[in-house]
Amino acid sequence: ACVSLGQEGQITAPLEKLATAGAVAFTDDGKGVLTSKVMQEAYQILQNLNLPLLQHAEMPGAQGPLAPGPIQKKLGLKPYE
User: Could you tell me if 39 and 31 are in contact, meaning their C-beta atoms sit under 8 angstroms apart?
Assistant: First the structure.
């Protein structure tokens, strides 16, 4: 099930209700959760439920595929910033 309402990353989804309905893991896959507040709330709730949060670790607007560094430079790729 999703971590945030509508996978918009702004408001924490009703994780307890989703778990009661049968959800076994939570993610906004394909999108990054936009606020640390939502992530903190989700981690606290899911820790109590003993259920995993699967974060799609990508932020909208990132420009390249790799973090800045020697490999990114060696391959001539635009840095992920």
Answer: no
